[in-house]
Each structure stands twice: as structure tokens, then as C-alpha cells.
Specification:
Strand content: 25-35%
Low-confidence stretches: none
Number of strands: 22
Helix content: 10-25%
Protein name: RHS repeat-associated core domain-containing protein
Number of helices: 5
Organism: Sorangium cellulosum
Radius of gyration: 26 Å
InterPro entries: Rhs_assc_core, T6SS_VgrG/RHS, YD, YwqJ_deaminase
Structural class: mainly beta
Order of helices and strands: EEEEEEEEEEEEEHEEEEEEHHHEHEE
Number of domains: 2
Strand order of the largest sheet: 1-2-3-4-5-6-7-8-9-10-11-12-13
Distance between the termini: 52 Å
Largest sheet: 13 strands, antiparallel
Pfam families: YwqJ-deaminase (PF14431)
Amino acid sequence: MRYEHSARGDVVRKRATGPDATGEQERERVWAYAWSGDGRLMEARTPEGCAITFAYDAFGRRIEKRVARLGEVESVTRYAWRGDALVHERRERPDGAGARVVEERSYVMLPESALPLAQRDGAAGALRYFVHGVNGLPEALVEGDGSVAAELGAGLYGEVTAEQARHTPLRFPGQYADEETGLHYNGHRYYDPETGAYLSPEPIGLEGGLKAYAYADAWLPETIDLDGLKKDPVVCTIRRKDGTTVTGTSQDRSSSDLHKAVLAALPPTPARDPDDPTAPWNCAEPAALSAHIEDWEERNKPKKCEPGAKGWKKNLRSAMREIDEENGISSKHEKSDVARAACPNCSQTVPRLFALAGMMPPTRVLAPGYQNRRGVGSLERFSQPNDGFHKNSSNKSPNAPVSGTDNLGTWSLTSKGWRRYS
């Protein structure tokens, strides 16, 4: 696969070679793309000679897709929206005998959500209901009586077979698959499920992250991108007993950006599942805790909470005592407002930070939240670490050397309170 880019960074040509169905090397296949000045895909040309053009409304929502071959229009699809939710599409095409065929499909969305609840083909068609995976991608359509009408076995990047694709064009939340181009329309950008990347760079620049073409900052499969701008980050709020707050956001950062006390409290090895690459220091909770401690130091100059500083443990204890013991550490998604439970890494970092200060963590200091971004399931205050985490004795040690402290423990939270494995 080879790409050619415009000066702005948009993919203007994609070239692919590979074996055909018989194993023979096929000729190079070329797709061409034309873009507007503000990064909207206006036309795509396929190796088969199709020209697909797009139109958008004043809000940037796609309202028309027109497919032509050799100058003859093969189909026109128009889209209707309610806010940012697609609710209806109407496709017109000739039947070859001079008549016009009209195909319609309506979508029912969950309230205040980007997730579809059901779809209906035609005005008199029966509703078929979506069954979603943990990342919101449709896995099945079921009839009103509960029988399975269709299944979609999507790959990691959301790709499905042509046979499965005909059942619904909806993919990751906010995405609509175009069979003609193989791309997924994703609000502000177009996503290529073949590579798991966008064809154009992040429209909001560096604010969206350093991975300009990555889908959801490459945090698949847990994280999604509703509109092609940036992943829906988690924001952690530390609420103090005096009512003041500080916040931190999940994002790519260096571990050195954290306060040294928080850095020492991170789990030495990841508590998340082994196939989850998220670094502990990128989460929102360590950022918020660092902001709280740094703010305490600013208000109490010249006292420091950094391990090794004069009176550091007493100072850290004073800072940690400021946090409200009842849901004082809470997290939620910035865009969707879904409350999130502390992840397995942060579920260790928080009690270990209290232990570093010589304190027992308050039982209810972590606010309850969901363990997925969709807000599905039960509310939890704690996320269990992977199976081998407690067995690894090195995980009891500080993540960075702390004089006089060699065991912060590993932790679990039960209905009776915190339990420390020492």
C-alpha cells in the first residue's frame, strides 16, 4: 500500500498491489481523492471507474452521495440528520428499464447517544434492533421476537465482509460505511478500515494528539472517535473538602510530567490486561492527582511533597487529607459525559499514593463509574487488575526509588473496604 499526499496532508492517491484470488500478482489498483480547502472529501474515484461525489450542509454533515460511471449517474443517496445523529437515508437509482427505484432506511437512536437502537428498511419494514460490542460497533441485528436476523463479525479496525456489510452501513459509533469506496464516513473525516487510519490529518491540529491520522489516537478497541476529531478523553476531577476542584485529562504524556509522588505510586507493571497498551501515566487520574499535589505545594510554599524532600511524607499526608473522602476522585468522558470507573492501573495508583503518605485510603474516595465508555453495565468504584498482577511481588514496590519505603502493596476494594496485599 502506498499513499500520495497533498501539501495539506490529505491522501490524494492510494496505490495497492497484491495477489488476486488465484494467487497471481494483480495489477496495481489506484484510488484518487479530491478535497475541499477545509479538508472535506469531495470526490473519490475507484479503480473500477466509479466517481463518487459528496455534498455537505452548513454544519459539515454529509447530505448527499452521488455515484456515477462513465458520466452516467448510477445512484443518488440523500441523508437526514437530527443534530449529529443520522436518522434517515433515501437512495434513488434507475432499474435499467427507465423506471426509478427508491430505497429508504430509517434509524432510531438511543436518546442523547451516538449509538443506534434500531433500523427500519422502507416505510412498512419491521424494526431490527442492534446488539453492540463493548466499543459500540454493531455485532448483530435482531428481530422484535429476539431472533437473530444478521451477524457482523468485524475485525479490529471495523472491517466486515461484503456479505455482512449489506445488512447495515453503521460501524463504529458515528461511522457510516460506503460500499463504493470502502471508506467509512466519520463526521469530519473519512476512515479506512483496511489500515485503521484516516485519509486526512486531525482537523484540530495538535490539540487532537500527535498521531495525526490515527483513529481514536490508536486506542482500539476500547476507545472510539465519534466525529473524526479526537478521541473522547476521560477527565478526572479531584474535589476537596473545601469544595474546590482540580482536574486532569487522559492524553499522551511523558511519565516525567507527573508529580514525583504520583510517579512513585504508579504500578511498576501494568495492571490492565496484557493486550491493552495504555501506559499508566497517560490516564486522567494521575494527572489530576499531580495537579492537586502541585497546587497544595503552591499554597504551602516552601513545603514539598516530593519523596526525599524535608518533611515530604507529612506534607503529602496533609495534601491527601484535603481530598473529599466521599467520591472525591471522579472521572467521566469529556464528550459523552459517561462516568468512568478508575481503570485497573488507576485503581492501584490511588491506594498506593495514600499508602505512600502513610495513610489508609478512604473506602469511598473513588467515585463509581462504568468500566466501558458506553455506560453499560454496573457502576463500580474499582477495576480488578489482570490475573497475574497480585502474584508479581515487584508490583508491591514503588515505581520509582523512595528512601525508607519499599512496599506500597497491591490492592483490591470490597464491600468491607480496601484490602492490601503486602
